[in-house]
Every structure is written in C-alpha cells, then in structure tokens.
Amino acid sequence: MRRLEEIIIPNLEARPEKDCYWWDGRWYTCADMMELVKNCEAALKSSGFARGQRLVVMLRNCPLIPALSLAVWRLGGVFCPLNEKAGLESLTGTLDLIKPFAVIAEHDIPELSRLWPFITCGLDDKTLPEFTGRVQPEEPGDYAIIFATSGTTGLPKAVPLTHNNLISNCEAVSEMIPSISSDDVLLTVLPNFHSFGYTVTIILPLTLGGRLAIAPSFLPPAATIRALTEAKVDVMFVVPAILSFLLMNVEKGKLAPEVLSRVRIICTGGDKLNPNLHKLSLKLLGRDIMEGYGLTETSPVICVNHDCETQVTGSIGPVIPGYEYRIRTREGQDVEDTPEKEGVLWVRGPSVTPGYLHAPEITAERFDSEGWFNTGDYVKVDAQGYVYILDRVTDIIIVGGFNVYPQEVEKVLAEHPAVHAAVVVGVPHEINGEIPKAYVQLNDGAEANDREIIKFAKEHLAHFKVPRSVEFVKEFPLSGTGKILRRVLRERVKG
Length: 495
Prior knowledge:
25% strand; 2 domains; Rossmann fold; four-stranded mixed β-sheet; GMP Synthetase, Chain A, domain 3; four-stranded parallel β-sheet; globular
C-alpha cells in the first residue's frame, strides 16, 4: 500500500539544502519544510490527533498547507481543506458530515468555533498554537484527503481520495507531460480546497521533488505576479479566468510579456478555455496553451494534452495512462465503437474515488455495478483519441428535440470581433421546451448590439442553435475557483 508521505518525505530528506518553496519574497529549503512538518506533527500529536482522525484546514495557500498535510499523514490521519468563504450553511453541513478532530482557520467563525475545536493561525506561522482536539470515530480506509464538492441537491457532499488515488494521478500526469522535471518551479496559486489546485500544484511537484512558488490566492493579483517574476516559474497550471486576466494585462501594457513568456508550460483546467486565449497567447507570448480536464472524483486529471507542439486547439487531449473509458448514451448504453464517438464519458481506474463520503445513494447514482464512474460530461472522441468536451449533460439545451451544446454556440459567438467571451444557457419556451440565451462580454472599447450578435450567429449556426436573446455583461459570476457559475445565469433568466 503506497502512501504519499513515504514518497515526499524521502525527497525532502535526501536534499536538505535544495530549494523547496518560494514564499513572500524568498526561497526556503527542503530542510525548512521538514522543520515545519515536524513542528506541525508535534503540535497535532500533543493535541491528541491520531489515526483515522480528520483535520479541517481553512487557510489560503501558504507553507503550512503542504506541511500540515504531511504531518497529518505521518500520524495516519486525513487532511480536509475547506473554503472559508463557502458560507455558513455550507460549512456547517460539511463539518457535520466530516466530523473533524479540529478546525484550523485564518479567522475565527464564532458560529463554528462554538461547535468544534477551532484554532486560528497566520499564513506565516511556523507551528500551531497549543490546543486540544475532540476525538471522533475513526474513518476507515486509506483516505489521504476529503474534498467538499458542490452538488445539485443542495445537501453537503464530500469526496474522499486515497493515497493511491493521488499517487496514481500524479504519476500519470508526469508520464503524460514528461517535460515537467524535478528542477522545475510550479506556480501554486489555485485554491488548495479544490482538487486541481491541491493535487496538480502542490502534491505533483512534491512527489517529483520539484519546487513550489506559493501565492496565497490570485486576488489581489500582485502576489501572483511577484511569484511569477521573482521565483522564475517554469510551469503554470491555472484556470482560464486567471490566464485571461494575465494575458489582458500584458496586452494593455500593465504586465511585462517576459513574465509569462519565460514560463515553459502553461496548462489550463477547471473550466472551458476561451478559444480567443489561444490566439492572444500566440500573439503576445509566441506560444500556445495546453488544456486538460478532470473532476474532483478523479483526483482530478482525466485528460491533458502532451505539449504545445502536439496539442489540438479545442481538445482537452487524450485520456491519461491508467484509465479505461467508455462512451455511453444519456440512458447508460454503450455507444457503438467507431473511429469517432460522441456521448457521455464514463471512466474507471486507480485515480477514481472509492465513493462519496457516507452517501451510498449518491455513489450508486454515479457508479455502475462494475465500478464505472459517470463524469456527467458529454464528449466527442476523435480517431486519434483526442477528447473534446461538448458540454455538461445538465447544461445541454434541448430545442424542439434537438441537442444544442452551449460551448459550440459560445465558441462561434467568441469569433465575433467585438466579443471577448460568451456564455449560453437555456430559457424555458412554451413551444420548443427551451431556447438559447447568450450572455456576452465585449472587448474593451468594442461596441455591438443584440441584433448584430444574433445576425452573426445566424450566419454560422443552424437556426435552432441561434440565441434568441442577448444580454451584455461586464463580467460573469465566478466560483471561488474561477469557474463561471452557469447556475447563477440560469437563475437570473428565471427572475
């Protein structure tokens, strides 16, 4: 049975003088990280933390995140990062589900600290203050981490991932992108409470023996730009919203292009990539952007492009090693095996969660009897094995019996010279069931009206795919991870 600390700790101890992480203007060595790990381990042990206990951590990115993770694992426990800004109702429900030994947070939340052992500490702290936790029933299984994730029911939902889940995913990603090495500096700016940020920008470099350039969060962006500049980042995994912001600031002359052009690998995930960003990156940096795809339940990466030379614009790349995949209808039947297939993506492999935490009914909804997991994404796989996300099954708009994939319509709208980005959602309609509505963000200084946008769409799309109405917005509602909240736009339609 493989464990993460048994891979990472030897990496740190073997090269104590090597730089391990950049934080707030300076580099710290592997020996510094080990000292931090030991301090955290001693504090947890004296508090009564033991095997099978869960430690909830609500801190922005900082050296304590990897140190606490390793300390928790060395004691046989489970690390549980949560978003402090998730809202009181969500946090209360998630804590009731996880039943933590203690909660470590940057700020006190009185409504929670009355219910659970609650410890506050700063991002620069070198250890934890003295505290006494509350021993909970031991969580069985080889869980390394538990992520909270959003669901459609409004009830709290949590995804446990085992040590082997995370190790397998890191190994497959490093095999898929072999140009990432132990000499590289990876940017750590994505939220650690999100699987993409935690696995790919913290655990992956640590398992490879690489280096982390840590920024607390993307907003305000000054810390990220400082990390990119001073730490000389080689590899950047980000969500499209972050990349869009950085490229637009380069275009406006507010950010020197050299800050990004020296980054050897830029890869996005977590949301669809605006096709205009490919063109903008080539124009400003002279290189393209790689794209990948994954889910919390898959630790997270399922697909990623190998490199900029072989990546296919619009594709999330091939399925990474270790996965089996099937394409099925929305009703669950296997699609006929042809050179090009289209349908719902199901996967099976060592990176897939064993199931949802204490929720067998939700697990049964997403897994079949043979262990295949329903991603909920409608995809196309071409003859070369490259995967294209057509849409979330729940986002597909059915117009008079015809499927309309919002991402297809959005891609066409983004080709209009005045349009920076577009999001398309379904609007209830008495005759057709649903019709498309577009929310459009214009380029700076550009002008266009709804008639022009609809006329452009009619010239490039079948009639049933054309948005019947257009609403212009200055910005889109975003989640804490930078993902566009389509649900908020759908609710706006309903009034």
